[in-house]
Amino acid sequence: MAKDRQSFELRADQLRRRMDPQELPFSTTEEVAPLVGTVGQDRAVNALEFGLQIRTQGYNIFASGATGTGKNTTVKSYVEKYAALDPVPGDWCYVYNFSDPYRPEAINLPAGQGSQLSKDMDELVEACKREIPRAFESENYEQRKGEILRDLQARREELSNELQEHAREQGLAIEATPVGIVTVPVLEGKPLSREEFEALPEDVKKEIKERSDRLQEEIRQALAKARKIEKEFNERIRQLDKEVALFAVGHLLDDLREKYHLFGEVTGYLAKVREDIIEHIDEFRGGEKEKEAVVIPGLDHVPKDSIFDRYRVNVLVNNKDTRGAPVVVENNPTYYNLIGRIDYRARLGAIFTDFNMIKPGALHRANGGYLIVQARDVLTSPLAWDILKRTIRSGQITLENIGEQYSAFPSASLKPEPIPLNVKVIMVGSPFIYHLLYQLDEDFRKLFKVKADFDVEMYWTDEHVEKYAAFISAQVRNEGLKHFDRTAVAKVIEYGSRLLEDQKRLSTRFLEISDIVSEAAFWASKDGAQNVTAKHVQEAIDQKVYRSNLIEEKIQDLIAEGTLMVDVDGMVDAQVNGLSVQSIGDYYFGRPARITARTYMGNGGVVNIERETKMSGRIHSKGFLILVHYLTGKYGQDKPLALSGSITFEQLYDEVEGDSASSTELYALLSSLSGLPLKQSIAVTGSVNQKGEIQPVGGVTRKVEGFFDVCKIKGLTGDQGVIIPRANVDNLMLKEEVVNAVAEGKFHLWAIETIDQGIELLTGVPAGQRRPDGTYPKGTVNYYVDTKLKEFAEKLKEYGRAAQAQRKAKLKKAA
Asked: What's the pTM value of the predicted model, to 2 decimals?
């Protein structure tokens, strides 16, 4: 038996993979070139490169992966790499729409031309404000205007003289009164008063009245002619003003039109500006006059000087200094931060806006390039996800404030012209968010067709070891830390393997690696060391554990005090130490727990007490049912199983989940049935299938260390150890203390493949193989179990016969 036991036992060198510092081709990281790019993410990088190169609509990217795998850094670096090769997109501007002031027009110009147009328009307005008043103050203008006014006065006098002459011929005079022009009768060259007129004979008065009516008609015709003449002369003055204004600034407009003759939108806009300046010459002639409140559509109720803002150019996106395509990382992707907004100002108790108050969003700035956002931030910001989808789907940015969509009463507001969208969106998030969106949002799978999946692990190869060293070198240089010697680098590499509990792989969660590098450098500085060594890395690891393992130490204290009952020596019937992993968020650890079983004759089967009390998870319940049916299949071939029993985790009051204790529970049942005690110095982990094979489980490193720590507290005897599945050997990355204890024979680990192997280790009794006749050799575990089950079956059968006989006797007596 001793030989068999040794065949299951693991050597100390199997419990942890070590990195030999001498295999590293450098003395310190000062000799190592900093890392460029990413490590161990070939699949994700391939997807990123595909997604960034394909230009078909809908091929936006979702970078999925666990926290700390370098998603953001990798995405940004590759996006910047491809963006540098793309052409620089143009500028986008909003200008005043002279035809529909509430719908500002969008103009696209080559990079840098938008700000130049804005500058040119500002200079044009200033020149107009300066040159137009000057032109109207010239002697030439006054002279020509005077000629027109004198001509107008002459025409007026001529018309007035003609009318007066005609009135005299009619014996009437014309007088102007506050209520209009009236006719007055004249007798012998003297105007008659009302009393004198009333004293005249009736026939004379009638004749005078008839002459007066005819003259009034002539007066109306003359006034109409005068108004026509005045209108004609006003038009001549307007034409003169237009001619003077164009003489003053027309060449400036012509220069601009020539400068932007290749851009039809700009030349069309300048033509409208020319017409509008002519229509509003008086505004430019105002000079330093007192400001008035004027109303201009789209520029609601602003001071007179501000009306010139309608000639300004609102440069929404300026790519003058951009190199390649823009890369925008929006860390706060709210509704307004994504698509922009229309601001308002308050004045005199009212609010107003204009096209100059249109502000760009991340989609405007990223247009023609790339936008990177965090999926969680987009989804938790109200309406942000909806507007992002709608904008990508429509292919244009339609700017609209949230309040306008939900206002109970429609109101006049700006409706800027939509801007065409050409952007590659990269969302970064967790696998959970990706699958949630894929299943619940039908638009998501249409708009984000490329998944860049970041892994949490990579194989432990020479290439990846070199990349680890390069990563440490890069961090040391970037943060100004002490350089790491080869022993420290080797220790960090081992830590990367321990994070995964896998001797063949290294963690790609470089956030955690980065933390250890920074903390190790800190302890080296406190130690006054020139370089960081393995001792400092180990100190960083130990201190990191110490900051988080308060709960673990409290549980260990309870076990040491006996409050939590866990035996680590002796032998007990139907009792075995199981191992679980407990997580407290940032830290997880192994915790031993006593598992007990009771068996007795009956037909009730084996009861899982955790399941009955609803403290068992679905996976644990499945594992329990598997072990029960393993018993039925192995021992119920030649007899019915007249078995009842129960299994429970003692003093465990949290939900039990996972099947890693199913083999442990089975050992407790076998002990109860066989009557053979189990070694309490051995803890067990591993799941079992219906064939009795031991299957691998998770957290095996932490489980072993958890039991070791309890044994250390209670005293190492040299007989203590842990049974693990053979398939989990490569998952052992035990701390040095455990490895050393195993090397010294103070602690043991056994790796098994079947239940029979495990029960032999726990009882010290051979399991026994079924013989061709279906029986087991005497003195074996399986023999004792099979015998007990046969006894249960026979006793239950006898009990049934006796009960039946009693019933018959009662019936006979009653009859």
From this structure: 0.82
